Amino acid sequence: MFGAARFCYQKPERNKRRQTSMMTTSPFAEERLVTNIEDCYFYHTMDIPGHGIVEGEWDLRANIGNYLGGYDFQGRRVLDVGAASGLLTFFAEKKGASVVSYDLSEHHSWDVVPYANADLTKIDTTRRGHMRRINNAYWLCHRLLGSHARASYGSVYDIPKTIGPVDVSIYGSILLHLRDPFLALSSAAGLTKSTMIVADVCPFGRLGQFLANPKFIPNPARCSPWDTWWNLPPRLIQKYLAILGFPHSEVTWHRQLYQHKPKTLYTVVGHRDKP
């Protein structure tokens, strides 16, 4: 009886310590010191102090305001989902926002199309190394630009609630790469008090404004692409956002440079009802 009583006495204390530990775990990553630009991969073309213009896959610099729907970031708390090199994070911060950058790290798997005949282990290993270089680019720019943004890493389907409420969440051309774009949006929607900004490529051109259904991209005959799932028209994104509590939305169109070639993109800005 004494042993049992002692066990019953200690168990709540262990649970208490475990709960306290869980409550104090921070979702934010420690800053990473990156000094060598050769260790980086730039998803965005960026102008970096001490290095000048460094080219990436996307050059949004000339039209970044339209990419973000003309939103006024002054005084807002922002969640940048899929931050990559951090261009949108640093732009919003420059415009007066407090920003949390959220992305994968080398410890997380990409949402790969799981073709039966593909070497998924090789793809995953290669991608993890690639993500580390993208994270390095973010931290290099973070330091050289004097950013105060905070970074958090994890799955887009499970964004930590401990990040806390934000005024606006940004999804910059990432939904096409995700198996479940609706689930990805819902992950941040619960944290977002006011506005969701979703930008994406529209291969249909402006004809896409009349479409409501997605196009499934993976081709099993060719086992490609492995990193892209959907073409998503803007009307579908508007429906997604309305379901998630952002019933008021507008669509704008803009042109951006991808590997020096112009692409048509849209941006949906969805708003909650004002209290």
Question: In words, what does this structure look like?
Answer:
- This is Methyltransferase type 11 domain-containing protein.
- InterPro entries: SAM-dependent_MTases_sf.
- It comes from Pseudorhodoplanes sinuspersici.
- With about 280 residues, the protein is α/β, with parallel strands linked by helices.
- The protein has a single domain, classed as Vaccinia Virus protein VP39 (Rossmann fold, 3-Layer(aba) Sandwich).
- It has six helices and twelve strands.
- An eight-stranded mixed beta sheet has the order 3-11-12-8-7-4-5-6, with helices on both faces. The chain has a two-stranded antiparallel sheet with strand order 1-2.
- Strand 4, helix 3 and strand 5 form a beta-alpha-beta unit.
